[in-house]
Structures are given as structure tokens and as C-alpha cells.
Design a protein that fits this description.
- The complex is a heterodimer.
- Chain A is an all-beta fold.
- Chain A has strands at 3-6, 10-12, 18-25, 33-39, 45-51, 58-60, 68-73, 78-83, 92-99, 106-109, 113-117.
- In chain A, strands 2, 4, 5, 6, 9, 10 and 11 form a seven-stranded mixed sheet that branches.
- The mean pLDDT of chain A is 97.
- By secondary structure, chain B is mostly beta strands.
- Chain B is 0% helix and 53% strand.
- In chain B, a hairpin with a 2-residue loop joins strand 5 and strand 6.
- Chain B is globular and about 35 Å long.
- The mean pLDDT of chain B is 97.
- The chains are: A mainly beta, B mainly beta.
- Chain A binds chain B through residues 35, 37, 44-47, 50, 59, 61-62, 95, 97, 104-107, 109-112, and chain B through 34, 36, 38, 40, 45-48, 51, 59, 61-62, 93, 95, 97-99, 102-109.
């Protein structure tokens, strides 16, 4: 069965970086893209960016440009999201979700990784 | 003005129908967008419900009951999620999403209360 398992909670200081992983299993890793979506406590969903493990292509939300890097390691079927220059407003739960290329059908999601940015 | 606007909350009775709207910003024509819908319950990741563009271009998520359906209201420039035969288990947050300007954009979400 398809599973996306994310790394554990992180606590970071302002200005630091965080790297969250998303381990995929149960399907052909390179046949689906990955998206990262975040959600602050009590707030709505916010799209962060996407990547294709097949092509290596990426796309990022404008507000994160320059601070976000999404990568993958096909040998271990894992996707990564790294966010740098963290600020308190980045405190949120970060989700990975897979989708068929060029589709908004985010059919499987990771369990979420809480990231807290605090001095 | 936000790209997608959803009412913050909606209440409906068990067994009734609920129509959740997702209004696109002026200048963005709903007729040219596929609208995706997600359900999220507290403490859980979102779950994909369905996609609606037209009656000939729609997709139902795996295992999603047929009482969840999508449509569009061109006059209101909105995508609509219709839930019929409401059940207590439908109480959740609902989000719409579109692909706009090379980015996925979510609406602010609607909290549906079934009481």
C-alpha cells in the first residue's frame, strides 16, 4: 500500500535551516510528483512547492523563493524540503503529498512534520 | 484580494445538503480552471475528495462517496462542493484549490458543522 512517512518534529532558532524528509513506499517513486504544503496552527493550507523525482524539475511558491529547496533521492525513494533563514512565521506543520504529474490530485499525504521556530 | 475565497463557516443539519462555495477573484474565470476539493479533520492531513472542471472532465477520489459532488456557478464565478445526505462524520474543514500562475493556490477553507 502507498505510504508517505515523514521525519519527526523539529525545533529551530530564527535564522536556522530545517530539512524535512518524506519516505515513499508502495508505488513507483518516479511516476509521481511531490508537493509540500504547510499549515500554521488554526490556519489554512499553504502550498510551498513541488518537484518531479523523474525529471528533477521544481517549482516554488513566490513567497519562498530563495529560501526553499526541494530535492529527492530516488535510490532511497525519499523527498526532502529544506527551508532556510527561518522566522517565527514559518512555525507550522509541513506535509508532503504526491500527485500524478500536472494533476492536482494529491491522493496520498504524509502524516505531517511540526516545525517550531523559536528563540 | 485573495485568489480563492471561501466562507469561513457553514452549518447544516444531518440528512440535509450543504453547498460549499469557492469564489475566484475577479478577472480569473472559473470556466478555465479545474477546481480541486479536500477535506481535513482535526489532527489529520487533508484528504482529496474530487476535481471538477465540467461534467465531462471530473474525477472522484478513491473511496469518496457519490454524495460528494462538484459543480460550477459561472454567474458567481465559483466552484461548488455539494454534499448531500449530510452525516455527522462530514463535519470537517473543506479546502478548494486551483493551479494559477504556475502555483497551486488554496482557498482559506470552510469549517462545516453538522448539527
Amino acid at each position: 500500500q502507498v505510504q508517505l512517512v515523514q521525519s519527526g518534529a523539529e525545533v529551530k532558532k530564527p535564522g536556522a535551516s530545517v530539512k524535512v524528509s518524506c519516505k515513499a513506499s508502495g508505488y513507483t517513486f518516479t511516476s509521481y510528483d511531490f508537493n509540500w504544503v504547510r499549515q500554521a496552527t488554526g490556519q489554512g493550507l499553504e502550498w510551498v512547492g513541488w518537484m518531479s523525482p523523474n525529471s528533477g524539475n521544481t517549482g516554488y511558491a513566490q513567497k519562498f523563493q530563495g529560501r526553499i529547496t526541494i530535492t529527492s533521492d530516488t535510490s532511497i525513494t525519499t523527498a526532502y524540503m529544506e527551508l532556510s533563514s527561518l522566522r517565527s512565521e514559518d512555525t507550522a506543520v509541513y506535509y508532503c503529498a504526491r500527485n500524478a504529474p500536472s494533476s492536482g490530485i494529491f491522493d496520498y499525504w504524509g502524516q505531517g512534520t511540526p516545525v517550531t521556530v523559536s528563540s | 484580494q485573495a485568489v480563492l475565497t471561501q466562507p469561513a463557516s457553514l452549518s447544516a443539519s444531518p440528512g440535509a445538503s450543504a453547498s460549499l462555495t469557492c469564489t475566484l477573484r475577479s478577472g480569473i474565470n472559473v470556466g478555465t480552471y479545474r477546481v480541486y476539493w479536500f477535506q481535513q479533520k482535526p489532527g489529520s492531513p487533508p484528504q482529496y475528495l474530487l476535481r471538477y472542471n465540467s461534467d465531462s472532465d471530473k474525477h472522484q477520489g478513491s473511496g469518496v462517496p457519490s454524495r460528494f459532488s462538484g459543480s460550477k456557478d459561472a454567474s458567481a464565478n465559483a466552484g461548488i462542493l455539494l454534499i448531500s445526505g449530510l452525516q455527522s462524520d462530514d463535519e470537517a474543514d473543506y479546502y478548494c484549490m486551483i493551479w494559477h500562475s504556475s502555483a497551486w493556490v488554496f482557498g482559506g477553507g470552510t469549517k462545516l458543522t453538522v448539527l
